[in-house]
Amino acid sequence: MTTTHDLGQPVMTSLAVADPGGLIQSVDWVAVAPPLIAALAALAVLVADLFLPEARKRLLGWLSAAGLLAALAMLLPLLGGTRSTFCFTSGGCSYTADHFALAFQLLALGGALLTVLLSLHTVDAEKLPGGEYWFLLLSSACGAALLPAARDLATLVIALEVATLPAFALVALRRDGRGAESALKFFLSSVTATAVMLLGVSFVYAAAGTIQLQGIAEGLAHAPAQLKPLAEAGAVLTLVGFAFKTAAVPFHFWVPDTYVGAPLPVAGYLSVVGKAAGLSGLALVTTVAFRPYGHTWGLVLAVLAALTMTVGNAAALRQRAGTPHGAVRLLAWSSVGQAGYLLVPLAAAGYAGSADPLGATVAYALIYGLVNLGAFGVVALVGGSGRLEEFRGLASRNRWAAFALAFFLLCLAGLPPGVVGLFGKVVVFRAAVDAGLGWLAVVMAVNVVIALAYYLKWTALLFAPAAGPAAAPRRAPAPLSAALGLAACGAVVLSVAPQLVLQVVSGSLF
Amino acid sequence: MNAVLIALLVLPLLGAALMLAPIGDKRALRLGTTVTGGTLLLAVALAAGFDHGEPGRMQAVTDVSWIPALDVRLHLGVDGISLPLLVLTALLTFLCAVYSVKKLPEGPGGRAFTGLLLLLETGMLATFAVLDLVLFFLAFEIVLIPMYFLISRWGSGKKVAAANRFILYTLLGSAVMLLGFLLIGVQAGTFDMVKLADAHGAGLSHTTQLIAALAILVGLAVKAPAWPLHSWLPDAHTAAPTAGSVLLAGVMLKMGTYGLVRVLLPIVPDGTATYAPYLGAFAAVGIVYGSLACLALARTGAGGDLKRLIAYSSVGHMGFVLLGIASLTPTGVNGALFANIAHGLITGLLFFVVGAVKDRYGTADLDTLAGATGAALYGRAPRIGALLAFAAVASLGLPGLAGFWGELLAMYGAFDPAAGLSRPAFVTYLVLAGLGTLLTAAYLLVVVRRVCMGDPKQPAPVAELPDLRGYEAASWTPLAALTLVAGLWPALLLALSDPAVKHLLGSG
């Protein structure tokens, strides 16, 4: 906090300020409620874990779900308008709940809620330590919800670490060799990314003289010429750090192994909420802080987007039906490809010089989050060794699961009746065309067609005649079915009324 | 009126949703007949309520905002071009449902079959009723899923490969088409087909028109199918069950040519005029290629499959439709639309009859059927033989039957193409098309001779050959009757389409 020193006054009076209330920061508790409630719920779960007898640990999961639901409900009062808190007296705030923040908080908390519902069964079945699992999940969700509202680099980095650090532990919770190896891989690559990003952040701070995102934009625009290389290097390093978190190519190699090693709901969580956290941070630093360098990072992101979608889709296409964990691997690679589409409007924002194209990223991220978690849910439901081959004839064993997965896959592919996925791709495509990125639009169109092949192959497998004698249908655990039903209903509703999610495209975000 | 049109689209969709409920196969099939029958009644009501004095105007219009963010609207309506196609779709689906109650192809059961059939009907009807480019694309795509499953699950022979090929071709085609639509939408600022058609390309630069027209043309040409993008069709037809073949040839191919008339001609006229000579050339080659392929299949010892032969004949017939469209004249386009309907009726009938022959013999292989002298259907199953001969002569364009007028008008359009198109080129296409009609007559007569004539006493693959059954008569007679009506009274259709075509071409 800055206090005004009045050199002419005795020391005693300098402590007695005329308006003591002005020094105490008034916190807008409503604005910070969503991440705060998630954090409190995490602590509550951790404490409750100590006192609950073993037999009743199941309650912890429901407690987590209730906490996330409450956090989601606290988004409603914020819809009215932008609210800021933790403000500096010199102007600018560290926490702003605008439409951009709300949309990503919805994605983070909603994604975490779906993950909790998907996990209720997994925690029991795989004998994961309940208290730790729920605590870590909630902490990570809290970080992911804090991140899109952060408006200075320090808060941003802290939020990003709060979101990712618990994720390492979540991946490692499965107590077999694969889980530990995945977690280590994930940990090392992520920590490297953080180190690189911190270096970049310090360069940027040195060049711009502030850690406030708005202030950085002004500072960079008026930075002395000899600091330019430092500022540019800082910007690039910061982008690299976020590119790691979004799993953009060439920083994607940790994804498939990590997803395979993690408990399935955690893999879904990483593919949606983890990615969303990285993406929202990337959007903030690029469109707000590094605005003066728009054309430079616009090009970098456009190339990254093109590479990411191409590599992701090509690798997904190469998955064979017989590979162990083929389903998760395919989803992992497809999520890399989808990250490429998500980066397209960011690149367009660089070219357009405004944040308007970001709406397409937000809309697409919301759609992708819902259907991708749904797809992971069905994979969890089917279980087994996770070979794609095991999905053959799912329609004859479990009709509704097959329908749901088919719908999610068609949404991911962007093919009717997955209407919402199609329109998500259309708005992304339009953002690219409007910004004059015709070549990127063409690359994207080619990629969508490539992706059709593997999504359709999997969908066709669901309805193919079953190979062997039909196994007796297992009864699906109720929470898992509820989560799947929720995701499927959401996707269907959005397909009938895509305006619900696409309105963020035309509205103002910041 | 607009309520009728909405009900027309919603009723089969509800029916399809109903098939998710656990009901018995037999009951599901009967329910399917009821629903498709109700849809047909609605289509007839729509035609009756249609203001025949003004077929060029959009009627029964519904226009509500659906996705403001993308400016996509739920815009529905019918005019003289779409009305006959809507009625044809409802009729053919109903006949297929009636036929399938008694003669369900082998596969996973009647409930799923009916559900897919109704979903297919929804998509087909929607394609002809929507007036928004994005909705058009959606409707175009919805059709693929049920057709894929109808071929891959209820088909015969190499059904999975054929279904995969079908969906791969059409998906790639429509992905390209969507790019063209998006380009138009981004440039013109609207997806509304009526507004875009009224603008006649104003607001779209020449380059945009060229790129968009090429993309849309390729997408629709796959569906139509135009030579050389037709190669999915013979396999799909050979493998598909009878109902699938009838709807594929009778309606789904028309979605491509309808799109050309509704989207390509009015919305990107400059681009269309640039590509019209090439489209005409491909059409002419398609006509000759299709009939030569049929001649080769019809030869003794060629091992030709009858369904495959009719599929190739479709390539030839759709060539006439494309030639008429490529002429860019009201005469040619009217001829194309007439030939569209005629081909739907005649080929629908042909596939029904050939499907029945295949069911009776267990094969559609022409050599097996014909034996040494011919299958002698005239002697062994005279009614089926007569119907096959009737459909064949209608298909070869005998005056007085439906096949005649469309092809005549399409060729007449090519004789005198629109201003700006090379007359010598189109006269060449006309000559090729004329050659095609001769070849068509040749192979169809060969087929009639080998299947209908012959010695009834010769040893046949099957001893018992039941003649026309009740359900077959019920589902085939309407098609035969309409073929005759359209042939004797062509003004019935032409009076509907002519003002609408002139409106779309900007000359009326």
TrEMBL record, chain A:
Record keywords, A-Z: Cell membrane, Membrane, NAD, Quinone, Translocase, Transmembrane, Transmembrane helix, Transport
Catalytic activity line of the entry: a quinone + NADH + 5 H(+)(in) = a quinol + NAD(+) + 4 H(+)(out)
Single annotated GO MF: quinone binding
One GO CC term on file: plasma membrane
Membrane topology: Multi-pass membrane protein
Subcellular location(s) of the protein: Cell membrane; Endomembrane system; Membrane
Principal localisation: membrane
EC numbers for this chain: 7.1.1.-
InterPro entries membership: NADH-Q_OxRdtase_suN/2, ND/Mrp_TM
Its job: NDH-1 shuttles electrons from NADH, via FMN and iron-sulfur (Fe-S) centers, to quinones in the respiratory chain. The immediate electron acceptor for the enzyme in this species is believed to be a menaquinone. Couples the redox reaction to proton translocation (for every two electrons transferred, four hydrogen ions are translocated across the cytoplasmic membrane), and thus conserves the redox energy in a proton gradient.
Family: Belongs to the complex I subunit 2 family.
HAMAP family: NDH1_NuoN_1 (MF_00445)
Protein name, as recorded: NADH-quinone oxidoreductase subunit N
Organism the protein comes from: Kitasatospora cheerisanensis KCTC 2395
TrEMBL record, chain B:
Pfam families to which the protein is assigned, alphabetical: Proton_antipo_M (PF00361)
Keywords linked to the UniProt accession: Membrane, Transmembrane, Transmembrane helix
UniProt-listed GO biological process terms: ATP synthesis coupled electron transport; electron transport coupled proton transport
Entry GO CC: endomembrane system; membrane
TM annotation in the entry: 29-50, 83-102, 166-188, 208-226, 238-255, 275-297, 309-329, 335-357, 384-406, 426-448, 479-497
Protein's UniProt keywords contain Transmembrane: yes
Membrane topology of the entry: Multi-pass membrane protein
Main location: membrane
Compartments where found: Endomembrane system; Membrane
All residue ranges annotated as the NADH:quinone oxidoreductase/Mrp antiporter transmembrane domain in the record: 132-416
GO molecular function annotation: NADH dehydrogenase (ubiquinone) activity; NADH dehydrogenase activity; ubiquinone binding
Family assignment from sequence similarity: Belongs to the complex I subunit 4 family.
Protein name: NADH-quinone oxidoreductase subunit M
Taxonomic lineage from the root: Bacteria, Bacillati, Actinomycetota, Actinomycetes, Kitasatosporales
